[in-house]
Amino acid sequence: IIVSSDAIETGSGIDKWCYKISPDSGYTCKDSTELTYEAIFNKENSKATYTINMYAIDKAGHESNVLESKVTVDEIGTATNPYRIYYIEDLVELSNNVNKGTTYDGKYFELGRSLDFKTKGSYENSERTNYGNINGVNGTETLITELTNTSGTGFQPIGTGNAFNGNFDGKDYTLSNLYVNVTDKQAGLFGLVGKSGSTNTIKNLTITGNVNKKGTTTGNAGGLIASSSASNLIIDKIHNQVNVTIGGTSQFAAGILGYSENSAKFTNSDNSGTISGGEVAAGIMGKTDGGGKIEVDTCNNTGNITTSSMDTGGILGYLIGTTYTIKNSNNRGTITGLKHVGGLVGSGGQSQTGPASGIISNSHNYGEIVSSTPTTDGYFGGIVGSVPRKSKLEINNSSNEGNIGNASGWVGGIAGFVDTLKMDNCSNIGSLTEVSGNSIGGLVGALGNSNGAVSNINKSYNKGDITVKNTNANLYPRASGIIGFVNGDGSSIMLNSGNYGNISVTSNSGTTGAWGAFGLMMTLSSKNIVLNSFNNGNITVSDSAKHKSYAIGLVLTSFNSTSNGNATINNVYNTGLVSGGNYANYSILYKASSSTASVTNAYYKSGPTGSNVSGTTSMTDADMKQTNPATTSGLLYKLNNNIKSITLTSIDSSLAGYTLDEWVIDPSTGYPTLKSFLNS
Q1: What is d(CA 157, CA 307) in angstroms, rounded to the nearest whole number?
Q2: Cβ atoms < 10 Å from Cβ of 317
Q3: Fewer CB within 10 Å: N-end or C-end of the chain?
């Protein structure tokens, strides 16, 4: 509401307004041609009727008569009448108040305009000194210098000892050039947010600048929030461009939220800032371990994420004992870490509060995945680094296009290690190069299948080449087009899946373990089913030590007299060249004497023997490329005709609800592929 200047008898135009709210003893003057009630009432005024006395001063220094006005002010800080922030000073005062103990429980704030810490126009008075020595260097300087001098601490986060327990709406404005540089404190625009039992919302804000958290003990870091204790934190339409750096190896950093103690929901948000350092680093949220629920929908990361420590992810870093969902989200930044590294999630793990259960859908990684320092116990995946034992992952309609390089341990185009997995309609086209370690897979490095778990992979494929170079004689690298290695007492089921990528393994591994290259998978699991699947990639092993190496076109089940795996294989084929295994070379399957295998309708191009069990058929290249679906000698006819005689539930009851996909000719290879792959 603007007080009209027409009622003022002045000769040369209004220069300033002076006012007081009775019974205040003195007037406050503002340089302005107009006076608004919003400029008069501050964050401390509560609901009441006030008497305002005001007068104007013109440019010649003439004073008008005093006007009196009565105004009723609604309660401030409500959803309909929020505290409004117009100046940088308002943010400083909010920070001071919260850090002194005013937590604004359930109150609402909103940004009234875009603000820039480096621009004088964003301050009410950028030269003021009444806030003291905020940044801790050079004594007291002007406010704009205190907040932007990079030799000092900069802006003090809102909530360093006490939590901000309100709500904040940026109204789609931008807060530019935030500078935070603190030691052993929570670091971000907000330090601590929320408390147990609270729901806090922060939304509609773009932030730029730099946040640096130094020290090795207390405090996490985030461009928006360092840490949240809210029972439910809601983040919507936050666009972080703040670069975040954190020291030490036991803290957590992310573009939006460093650490969440409980549940958090992120929607329509993104990070483009560079995130570096800490034990955990991620684009959207670093770590949670409170047993709550984490929801991510339509969030993206383009910033590079780097840590030399444990868990690193483009979207989420480390989740312990937490259920989480990620959908419609992507990463395009380069993700670099030491042990648990993924394009979307570093690690979805387990704690005493219970196993994690993650669901990822319609989400993709385009960024490169890199090991900061190769280690034998690393976990690297294009989507997820690791999902440890007793934890579950469900992933569908998702893909990885980023290359994975210089990594070792458990490495997969989609996931490095998963205990229990359900995968549908997923793909990897990123290459896995210069990798080594225990198991490497075009889709999954390894499946745990503990406690009788059943893992399923359906309508998924790998097109990335896999190149393994191992110089550690104590490591036994196992590389496969789909699953590098399957262990445990559970079951693994693969149907409607295929590998196009070439697999090459070079190693000097010793005599006590088996290793090699496999078109689809190597397994020790109790039950293994492979249906309606194929391999087109070449399988090459180079065994300089001449020890127990294998080259197998599709599946190896068990590799010694003490392991008891079994396999059921039906309606499959291999066209890849198979060579170099010192212990065994087979075009379809190898089984150890202690295991059992049933092979039906398995076809391979002329080369090594199909299997050491019956059920395989050698075919000419011409028949395998026969395009006429009615030609009975052609592979296309055989594969589709076989489907008619396969009843899935008679093979295993867990296949109820699944169907076998139709085969068509792939114009890029000339061989049959699954119809769903061409449609994707």
Answers
A1: 23
A2: 36
A3: N
